[in-house]
Write a structure and sequence with these properties.
It contains 7 helices and 7 strands. Helix 5 packs parallel to helix 7. The longest helix has 11 residues. It is globular and about 45 Å long.
């Protein structure tokens, strides 16, 4: 059985909730990623959300806010989703489809070990699996 750990990319980097959005953008650039898990203040391993490059643009810049004054925690919303490293690909797809998300942190022994993105799915799944995933994640309504 192919697992979440098999298809994820390693090296996911946390952003502390108190860090500014300009720093988050720099980390995304440096690590060549479009999303960072947000950690709770003082708790490196407790995820309170995921910050995306789109969040910075839409939730900060487009609203006229200063990214050097807004923090990652300011944009943390909802309940963060994640998947256990040993979960099968079917569970990965179900979690992403049900919650209409394009990035999914992978956790092992309560620690973040990687992230699954659209690019990871494209590299490891069949065309049929990708088409089904995209139809549900990108569906309107």
């Amino acid at each position: 059985m192919t697992t979440a750990k098999d298809i994820m990319h390693t090296g996911a980097t946390w952003i502390p909730a108190h860090e500014t959005l300009d720093r988050a953008a720099q980390l995304m650039r440096d690590h060549k990623v479009g999303a960072l898990p947000i950690s709770a203040k003082g708790a490196q391993d407790r995820m309170i959300g995921i910050l995306t490059d789109r969040d910075i643009v839409v939730g900060c810049v487009a609203m006229g806010h200063d990214p050097s004054r807004m923090t990652a925690g300011d944009l943390a919303q909802g309940t963060p989703r994640w998947i256990d490293s040993e979960a099968g690909v079917e569970m990965v797809l179900e979690e992403m489809q049900t919650h209409r998300i394009r990035r999914l942190p992978v956790v092992e022994n309560k620690k973040l070990i990687g992230m699954i993105s659209e690019a990871d799915l494209a590299q490891h799944l069949t065309e049929e699996q990708i088409a089904g995933w995209a139809e549900k994640v990108y569906a309107r309504g």
